[in-house]
Request: fold
Amino acid sequence: MPRLDHIELPVRDYRAARDWYRDMLGFAVEMEFPDGRTVGLRDDADLTLFLHEGAPPAAAGLSFTVQVDDVDAKAAELAGRGVRFVHPPQKVYWGYGAELVDPDGYRVRLWDETSMREKG
Reply:
């Protein structure tokens, strides 16, 4: 079966985006190419998110979902750190979770298995 291996996103400032995904969502820096203004960040499932400097497109409708241990706790933590949310954890058409916006305007959905099963 095919497996998604990496995603590439243009960002305004790759260092700021790197720090945000690392510090807010826990991605690990896998590789960095300062001359190419690009960084690869890895998640626990071995998916690599490449962030490179360029003009982020208007990404209406584009979102991606990140699994966390506890969506309510993670959302509260991120809200306390000033992260902008589209909506807090709630029941939505895809189940139960929160949706936030990264510094470049990409929508990131948060979910966890327990909340999805019990509240979704």
